[in-house]
Amino acid sequence: MAKRSRAYRAAAEKIAADTQYEPAQAIALAKETSVSKFDGTLEVALRLGVDPRKADQMVRGTVNLPHGTGKTAKVLVFAAGDRAEAAREAGADFVGSDDLLEKVAGGFTDFDAAVATPDMMGKVGRLGKVLGPRGLMPNPKTGTVTMDVAKAVTDIKGGKIEFRVDKHSNLHFIIGKASFSQEQLEENFKAAIDEVNRLKPSSSKGRYISKATLSSTNGPGVPVDAGTLRV
Question: CA-CA 20 to 30 A from 69: which of 13, 158, 173, 182?
Fold first, then answer.
């Protein structure tokens, strides 16, 4: 195990052992215990009471954070013709069709989100080995397979985040930067949690959100009282 820095150990001492914090308290502590020399990102980790091996218990969705994420996402769009031009005008960082498909197939993944028009998905689907492991494959359920590529780009640039439960039933998402105000982070947190709760599978039994932790980049985890997150 890597040795923790003195700053990390000092930050960790501010978190009481065996204590589950209310969301507002956890956010304040995560801000206070941010130890990175840059403006760290606050991330939430949840353990869900679902079995992701079952199709009807796969939790996946998107949410527009009221105050954005604090960073401008790089967006790649697979489109041609007028749709490609619309994507460029909306601020997409990379736009193309066959040429861009070939570039990504070669290993190019320097972007945060990918959008595609439906007619391109036959070819984009072949990039599964490159895009899939990184969570970058366009999907109609998250609004990234659409004819309205301009809106998709605008939403992503404006603070839209995507989340998906992993094979261990864990789900991660960011709620902004440590420099955000307490109120901004609380509102972003609530928006994301509300959407996670809205997506609870009807077949999921027992506790839906069983564990929650909030942390800043390179900072210690702050345990959140999961009971306060369930509807």
Answer: 13
Contact 192, 204 (CB under 8 A): no
d(CA 84, CA 80): 5
127-165 residues labelled b (16+ CB within 10 A) or e (exposed): beebbeeeebbbbeebbbbbeebbebbebbbebbbbbbb
Task: Give pTM, 2 decimals.
Answer: 0.80
At 83, which amino acid appears?
A: R
pLDDT in tens, 168-213: 999 999 999 999 999 999 999 999 999 999 999 998 888 999 999 9
Coil, helix or strand at residue 44 = strand
* Cα distance between residue 164 and residue 119, in whole Å: 25
CA dihedral 116, 117, 122, 126 (to 10 degrees): -10
Residue-by-residue DSSP string for 65-99: -TT--SS---EEEE--HHHHHHHHHTT-SEEESHH
